[in-house]
Amino acid sequence: MATLPVSQDVLIDVWGPHLNRMEGMRADTGAEPDRIVPTHCCFCGQQCGINLKVKDNLVIGFEPRYDFPFNKGMLCPKGVKRYLQGGHPDRLTTALQRDPGAEGGFTPMAYDAAIARVASEIERIQSKYGLNAFGVLSGASLTTEKAYLMGKFARVCLKTKYIDYNGRLCMVSAGAANKKAFGIDRSANPWDDILNAEVVLVAGSNTAECSPITTNYIWQARENGGKLIVVDPRITPIARTADIFLPVKPGRDVALFNGLLHLMIENNWLDHAFIEQNTVGFEAVAEHVRHWTPKQTAEVTGIAEKSIRAAAELWGRAKTSFLMHARGIEHHSHGVENCLSTINIVLASGRIGKPYCAYGTVVGQGNGQGGREHGQKADQLPGWRDIMNPAHREYIAGVWGIRPEDLPEAGVDCYEMMRRIDAGEIKGLLSICFNPKVSLPDNAFVTRALEKLEFFTVIDFFLSETAQHADVVLPGSLHEEDEGVVCQVEGRVIKINKAVDPPGDAKQDWRVIQDIARALGRTHGFTFDSPRAIFNELRVASKGGVADYYGITYEKIEAQNGVFWPCPSEDHPGTPRLFEAGSWNPVAKGAGPFYFPDGRARFNVAAYRPPAEDVDEDYPVILTTGRVVSQFLSGTQTRRIGPLVDQYPEPRVEIHPRLAQKYGIADGDWTTVISRRGDITLRAQVVTTIRPDTVFIPYHWAGRKAANQLTIAAQDPVSKIPEYKVCAVRVHKA
Amino acid sequence: MNMEFFLDPNRCIGCQSCVAACSECDTHRGHSMIHLEYVARPISVQTVPVVCMHCDSPTCAEVCPADAIKRTGDGVVQTARKPRCIACNNCVLACPFGVPKMQAELSLMMKCDMCYDRTSAGLKPMCASVCPSGALYFGTRDEIERLRPRSEPINTFQFGQQTITTKVHMMVPRGAGVQHLDVLSAMDDEPAGPGDPFENL
Fold this sequence. Notes:
Chain A contains 23 helices and 28 strands.
């Protein structure tokens, strides 16, 4: 019974989000920390180094971590205030069970009893409906050890095929495109390759707000003479001073990049030798982009033809470049094509695999990279292996001590899991590190699906909006309460260090998972005594795979300030830059630098398709969604941190004055935005920094303030990423 | 090694990391001394961070009737001395950069002291440590010249008849020269900027 036990308003009153502020020992200017723990930020994929000040098992503040080379002490406001998530009044310190009669709808229960109840419900559902009737949702903010354990737990302990993770909402379209084009899914270059790039092309990345540290790299490239091209429907802070700003109409990115390639070919701005020796498929792509003339590109993208020509010339003539993209081009029902169309202009330029010749996706979540490598994805096994590949199954089954035929087959993406819950196929669910009620598109449908679960359990440290639906909530751990590795934006594996112990009955997530396995009597493979022990098994499980971690150790990470994978042996230093000429990889085996048997990269035809839901007479305005700098993802943590909420307290709808005037909306007016799935009423922010055919709403809020009440559950057919960046709405003054 | 403070507003992305970090400083926890404002959000995302410029002849100290504002030997203008400050607001009104803040609940003017506790111990100020865009930078003259070849630091500012030189430097486009605006230029005719963004729509 996974309906809300009491009303949403009562749940908020009791469980938050309440705001934690600097008080007590944290406000005491004389409080000397007991120790300083060097670690990383808990939030985005930049994974800035940070020193946490700890006193009496409480993180009381931070010190800049100047010695970590990626950020050299820099932080965004989320990193500065992250410590306020600890010692929080909303923190779950016991297990909870659903109790509609209790104030707040939940009553505390003994931890062991909660574990026993979860195990008995798993037993009941799986014996009554079959093994696949119980599913697992996981997340890419977990350490890689936990992500690995979740994949193993689903396949080996629960023997269910249904596991997927919230990286599905993040950059899977980039991952799928990288797999198609390069045979490997990782940013190809370290960020230092930005610094002397002649052209930096930023496509669909609100860099300054979503990956703030990258800003300094881009500004430094410009100091060194580099030019900046930004593709975005909004003039974000990184776009404000761009040399060329391309205000693409949401959903038309493929057209833009095909148009740029058209001009590269027309003007012979191509690296023929590279194309000849290192790629396949150029001719078909060249033929495909023939009709993407500047005129047609301008018509479809809504960008001035002269800007398209200027961008093509700047990109085409450059000797070095860094192309980066993020959710802006990835969150589409044609997200894979979008990314492939950017890769095509990189490959045509030949500017990859060399210093300052670079390509990469800017990952969003803290372990957005590492969380998508080692098997918590529906179709994946550790080491970036394929669960449907017999040789891969055999290897992993060997590591796990089971028979290959006992490994489940591929499951489905997390949104499809919601549909299968709705259809009654999945009856029970365990969720960790995921807040689908806020983060998945079409909130109303997700809520309806969750309500149909016979049994739902959530491991979390706060009672997230999703956890409010749970029958049993198990108290998990905050980032600073455990250790392990994550892989940050550059592909650098780094170490998270434990600063404090979990409070009360709360436990490290890997202990909670193993406690469930023990209560089920299925302990085989779930008797790890530490994250290090899990990591050592992961190293073996990844050995020989594309994402080879075998040569990475905690000690090497500390000695080198991180290790770039692949790192196949203990004497291997790691691989900061992929695709260097003459480099060896386990797929090409010396045939070439790319991860295919012939060692060549693939051009892929990227056909333009309009968004799944284009504007029409009834819904004439495009809605696009995104982030603000002071909040993170579904806001479970950041909506509880006072200073971050002060900075941007409520979502607002950004609207151009031309559109606002049409609807009689003034700055600050309550404004209703309606899609076919829901409506929202927010204050308007009237600004000339957004296209006049588009409105923008940030998505960090829940309930009546949730942007995902409006968004569409259309998904990319290959990667299954949802189309958060385009749907059709109408707008009126409330 | 002479470390100096450089402000480079052109780089600012408005993230408020400096504001957040300033309030974490051990000497004034909970109070931020930095001002960060949009210039004109309806038409631009441009923001400008303002820290104390640490004037050679600080106007705030000159107008203080209680002699509460002191400048250290190495040129750092400090928060008002608590025993002396009478919370009269003279400094708040007089500072040409708009830096001092009156903390009404403390009856005390507080302002940026360039993290004197940190800088005197060889550490960078909090704001210039965390700033992810390099809009606030603390380092040597050699470093800034090497890292920012497109800009040059200036530290002379003109306010009416008053010429102010400061310890903190502002980075401006190289060769642009220092321009002094006469307020009359914006009074009689159209302002030089983009003007009212809504009037022609």
